[in-house]
Amino acid sequence: IMNDIQKDEIEALESIYTPEEFSYQQIDNQYRCSFKIFISLPDDYFFSYKDTRDPSAIDEMVKISHLPPLILTATLPADYPAVSAPEFTLSCSWLRLGAITKLCKKLDGLWSENQGQEVLFTWVTFLQNDTLEFLNIERSVSIDHAYTLYKMNSEKVQNEATDGQLPEISEAKNSRSIQKRAHRRNKYKLRNDRRAIVEQNHSKNQSYKNPIHYLLDYNEKRLIIEFKKRFYTCNICLLDKSGESCTQFKPCLHVFCKECIASFLEVRIKDGAVQDIYCPEDKCKSEIGLEQIKNLVSPELFAQYDSKLLNTTLDTMLDGIYCPRKDCQYPACKEPDGNMATCPNCRYAFCALCRMGYHGVEPCRYNS
């Protein structure tokens, strides 16, 4: 009977969550479930950081739209849900161990309130909707601890590289140091829950990654994923298109379908108007990025754009000239203190004044 109840719960969870959010395995007649819990952040949410070793340090605030998910893993005992609770772990990369421990205790409390009933959906709903309020981090979350660890580790690596080797430490002193660290770790573990895990943003034997870059990189990747899931009205063709078929300008955030912007770019490139390509929205000054152009037009058209942009840029420079060989015509720059120019394509060295082969110290007839 228990197995049928568990099976029904698993099937219900599959119908509620996406494959990215929920997965499971059945091993030795036990269900092992894994949840990625994405927390919806308020519009103006920030993470803050500072080096806690500096008493005068002030919190730096960085706006963010997405944080990495909480990871909940749960194994269902044979007598769940009638008697036993799921055996679980909860991990997070941006919360401290004490905060994750509080969440674990809260999940225990929810089980006590609902013992005898399926509880996984209740757990996930709480973590998804109430984590920020429960931990009193509704407007911002601090990563001071992770940032300070990163700074300390970076300084240690830098000092080791500078010194070449670590200073010698006596065996007795080293032993006392190891014992003290072990004592601190054991004391820390007693205060926290073994089911609570701080997910490290570095691999074993590797340096800590900058937690600021880690969160910003994740935020950028998640913004792209969420953008592709939605539908937008293109302000050129006025048709509704999926995010997968659209492109967005920054920082204005105006959205157009890729087909319309590709046509817009094709006209600009063929007309030679390759500088200062702005968002098509009226009076908008957001400029399109190089990578954006590359992703929207064909390789052949992008090569034309790249060549025309280079030529246009060189034309605005005093030293911008072209190889005089008819079968080359590649852009080249002359030496700043002389008249010699060298083509980077065919290696032809020529006089920048008369365009003939470079004549060294001989005065140029064109100049005279």
Automatic annotation (TrEMBL):
Entry keyword Repeat: yes
Catalytic activity, as annotated: [E2 ubiquitin-conjugating enzyme]-S-ubiquitinyl-L-cysteine + [acceptor protein]-L-lysine = [E2 ubiquitin-conjugating enzyme]-L-cysteine + [acceptor protein]-N(6)-ubiquitinyl-L-lysine
Classification via Pfam families: IBR, RWD
GO biological process, one term: protein ubiquitination
Gene3D superfamilies: 2.20.25.20, Ubiquitin Conjugating Enzyme, Zinc/RING finger domain, C3HC4 (zinc finger)
Molecular function GO terms recorded: ubiquitin protein ligase activity; zinc ion binding
Keywords associated with the record: Metal-binding, Repeat, Transferase, Ubl conjugation pathway, Zinc, Zinc-finger
Source organism superkingdom: Eukaryota
E.C. code: 2.3.2.31
Residue ranges annotated for the RWD domain, each copy included: 8-134
Keyword Zinc: yes
Record domain RING-type: where: 230-368, 234-283
Protein name: RBR-type E3 ubiquitin transferase
Organism: Bracon brevicornis
